[in-house]
Q: What sequence folds into this?
């Protein structure tokens, strides 16, 4: 088949007729398919079902050291649970704060603490400054951008490359502008591309020279152990790289078990330098008497140790891999011959980033929605919801049953073609 980009007008017109017919047939099916959010499927949730009964009737809810998890205390979490995260991520347990059920919540709180109280190295709370700006590698995670937007933090997009954010741009921006106070990073299996930062990128982050003395890297390692199979990517340990250097306060490291156990009922983590931890403690101890230790105990008893989590994640990979394969196979079969799109082929995480032809993402999204297939809104992967090239779409293969996924991704391919043909033919 000829590429769309090589077709003359008559060929494009006839192809448009063919695809329009296909689209009309799809619409007549009355689909109701949702691949908009990166949620685990019920098959995945079943994998940890027995965790729910692990604190059964005979259990006294005490840890081996005798801490009664039913009662107040342990501001930064159960020692056993901190140790579990410590060995999984190779971060000292003393530098780990376990929070509630959501790392996004901890990110929000961390930004708000900086806004209200400031952070070590700074001379005032960020809210007392005329302007606060964050670098936003884009496409990126829409909820990071929402935090900034909601708090009036100006967002500066930075291009993503196959090895992570464009580090030349990052370095020159943070070196020259004191009002740039932070950057959002999803360093492993980034949302939405599934890119893992190269060793060189991580090293450049670890030695970043910033004009602002209170600059912070928000290192959201949400997909640290979320490989699809044995071939997963590896990521340098930025915490260890920075620990003990004069840059260590620059790092806020986030993680959670949301996509290991239960989203919304997992355990979230923030790892900090000693200085950052002492500063955060003064505020967190006012905010709460302690986190949900019963849930932390459930996680410790269920997984036992880091290997328990790694083994368990193999099962998640086995459920997710066929879903990614279906999406990628369909994109290769249906979109590659037309030559109008490109996409990432991640080795883990929850997303695939699809770039359709410039100026057609919003229309593809609209056509898909009209045909009953919901995907993440076009533009959502960019600050302020504005994709400058209107080309990026985030595909989330995890949630729909395989049969529905096959239908949904076919619909998206047809919509991407129709949007391209309409634009090319100016109809
Ligand atoms: C990059 C990233 N960070 C954080 C989260 C949310 O994490 P949590 O459930 O721990 O709040 C998500 C959820 O999709 C995500 O993709």
A:
């Amino acid at each position: 088949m000829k590429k769309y980009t090589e077709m003359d007008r008559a060929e494009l017109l006839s192809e448009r007729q063919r695809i329009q017919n296909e689209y009309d047939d799809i619409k007549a099916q009355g689909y109701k398919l949702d691949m908009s959010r990166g949620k685990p499927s019920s098959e995945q949730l079943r994998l940890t079902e027995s965790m729910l009964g692990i604190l059964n009737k005979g259990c006294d809810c005490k840890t081996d050291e005798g801490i009664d998890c039913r009662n107040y205390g342990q501001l930064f979490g159960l020692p056993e649970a901190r140790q579990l995260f410590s060995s999984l991520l190779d971060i000292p347990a003393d530098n780990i704060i376990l929070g509630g059920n959501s790392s996004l919540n901890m990110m929000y709180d961390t930004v708000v603490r900086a806004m209200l109280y400031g952070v070590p190295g700074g001379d005032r709370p960020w809210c007392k400054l005329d302007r606060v700006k964050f670098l936003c590698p884009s496409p990126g995670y829409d909820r990071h951008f929402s935090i900034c937007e909601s708090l009036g933090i100006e967002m500066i997009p930075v291009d993503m490359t196959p090895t992570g954010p464009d580090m030349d741009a990052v370095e020159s921006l943070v070196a020259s502008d004191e009002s740039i106070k932070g950057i959002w990073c999803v360093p492993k299996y980034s949302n939405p591309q599934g890119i893992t930062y190269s060793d060189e990128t991580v090293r450049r982050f670890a030695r970043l020279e910033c004009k602002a003395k209170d600059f912070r890297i928000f290192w959201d390692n949400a997909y640290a152990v979320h490989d699809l199979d044995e071939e997963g990517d590896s990521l340098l340990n930025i915490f260890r790289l920075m620990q003990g250097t004069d840059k260590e306060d620059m790092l806020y490291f986030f993680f959670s078990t949301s996509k290991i156990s239960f989203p919304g009922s997992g355990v979230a983590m923030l790892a900090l330098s000693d200085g950052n931890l002492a500063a955060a403690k003064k505020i967190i101890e006012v905010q709460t008497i302690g986190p949900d230790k019963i849930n932390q105990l459930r996680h410790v008893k269920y997984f036992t140790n880091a290997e328990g989590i790694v083994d368990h994640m193999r099962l998640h990979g086995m459920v997710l891999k066929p879903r990614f394969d279906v999406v990628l196979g369909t994109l290769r079969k249906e979109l590659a011959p037309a030559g109008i799109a490109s996409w990432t082929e991640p080795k883990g995480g929850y997303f695939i980033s699809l770039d359709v032809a410039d100026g057609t993402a919003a229309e593809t999204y609209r056509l898909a929605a009209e045909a009953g297939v919901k995907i993440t809104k076009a533009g959502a992967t960019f600050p302020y919801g504005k994709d400058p090239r209107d080309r990026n779409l985030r595909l989330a293969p995890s949630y729909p049953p395989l049969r529905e996924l096959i239908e949904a991704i076919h619909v998206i391919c047809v919509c991407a073609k129709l949007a391209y043909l309409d634009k090319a033919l100016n109809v």
Summary: Residues 218 and 252 are 5 Å apart (CA to CA). The mean pLDDT is 97.
